[in-house]
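Reviewers of the previous submission asked for a worked example of the structure-prediction workflow described in the proposal, so we include one complete record here. The input consisted solely of the amino acid sequence. No template or homolog information was supplied to the procedure at any stage.
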Amino acid sequence: MIPRIWLFLLAVIPACAPAEQVPREIPVRATAYSWRELAHRKWGKKNAIGGSLARPLEGIGHCAVDPDVIPLGSIVHVPGIGPRIATDTGRLIRGRDLDVHFDSLREMRAWGARRVTVRVVRWGWGKDFKTTTIKPQHGDRT
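From that input alone, the workflow returned the following structure tokens.
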């Protein structure tokens, strides 16, 4: 028979595991979008953190995520495209949806929508995040 303390530890330890233990590969439905498309123009070039979709952040293109699945500031590697940084959200992005931003309408249309498995390179902003961009705070409106 297993002592009660071991049962308690087996139940509690996985819940206390750091976020780094979360699986690094996530299957998603990746859809292309661009600030240049007519449907997106009402929001302009701004992303959810207040930056511009027209300019890369940290030298990396943008993507929109559900922050409950992939935190803002995360860097994901999308097969066939390369790295993207999660700087945007969308009201229709729920769960394992990922919107990949393209600056060109031609590239956006060529990508369309497809199922891929993305590799998360960095979770959230990380300790090494060094830029002048202001990180969103809880309760901020953008």
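Confidence is low (pLDDT under 50) at residues 5-19, 130-142. We consider this example representative of the routine output the project will generate in years two and three.
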